[in-house]
Design goal:
This protein has 254 residues and is of the alpha+beta class. The longest helix has 38 residues. The two termini are 37 Å apart.
């Protein structure tokens, strides 16, 4: 199992530190210029009317405050960078884990099967499940009746003719239907709300400065969409954000 994009770990911290170093360098240049001007002014001042010391003392104090602010920012940036690196590196432990996440596209391996969860609200008399390939073509469909609440669906990787499909990304489409086969509408004329989740094993981790992505085959799953994790090594269930298995799928459809 591959682990990718590790070269980006800490890149944001490096950029922030570079910005702080640039600000500090600019402040040092300005301070040197200020001292040069101040020294020149002191050398050429009128002895009978010397410059008031409180003015340049205030300016020196302002420079000191700015310098302290830049240093504080640098320390905060270092702390944030360390926390980000720890979070990114901890994501590597998800390789090999079984995850559940909000999303409708999963990755089929040769001869494998795909697992989904879905929830439709309000309860509908009928619904149609479709599996579409990467080109949006429906290769499998079935109709169900009296479906309510959180449901699980496993597709065996074959089309309606029983022919096994090739490796690739496949999307689950859930279409709520009325009893007569038309598209379902509520009493207020609105369509039913549908939430879909995927279940799969993490093959690799992509890390950049904005987010962490767990990959199931070539399907990229944002870390923030996880609803449940079962770590491969310990078999321990963990849940992102305190949600139990499939709860985000339930909440989206509610």
């Amino acid at each position: 199992m591959a682990i990718s994009s590790l070269t980006n770990v800490g890149l944001a911290g490096a950029n922030n530190n570079a910005a702080s170093s640039s600000s500090a360098s600019q402040l040092a240049q300005n301070f040197d210029t200020f001292l040069t001007l101040l020294t020149t002014q002191l050398k050429n001042q009128d002895p009978t009317s010397p410059m008031e010391s409180d003015k340049f003392t205030d300016q020196l104090s302002q420079f000191a405050q700015v310098e302290q602010g830049i240093q504080s920012n640098k320390n905060l940036e270092d702390l944030i960078a360390m926390q980000s690196q720890q979070r990114q590196l901890s994501a590597l432990s998800y390789v090999g884990a079984e995850i559940e996440a909000v999303g409708d596209t999963n990755w089929l391996e040769e001869g494998g099967e795909l697992k989904y969860k879905y929830n439709v609200s309000p309860e509908v008399p009928r619904l149609q499940l479709q599996i579409q390939d990467q080109e949006g073509k429906t290769i499998y469909s079935e109709e169900l009746t009296d479906v309510s609440g959180l449901q699980s669906f496993t597709w065996d990787g074959k089309n309606n003719s029983g022919v096994a499909q090739g490796e690739g990304a496949y999307t689950l489409v859930v279409k709520p239907m009325a009893a007569n086969g038309d598209t379902f509408k509520t009493d207020k004329g609105k369509p039913a709300s549908v939430a879909i989740g995927i279940i799969g094993s993490v093959d690799s981790v992509d890390i950049d400065d904005r987010d962490i992505y767990l990959r199931i085959g070539d399907v990229s799953v944002p870390f923030s969409t996880l609803t449940n994790v079962k770590l491969g090594a310990s078999g321990t269930d963990t849940t992102d954000g305190g949600n139990d298995s499939g709860s985000d799928v339930q909440d989206e459809a509610a």
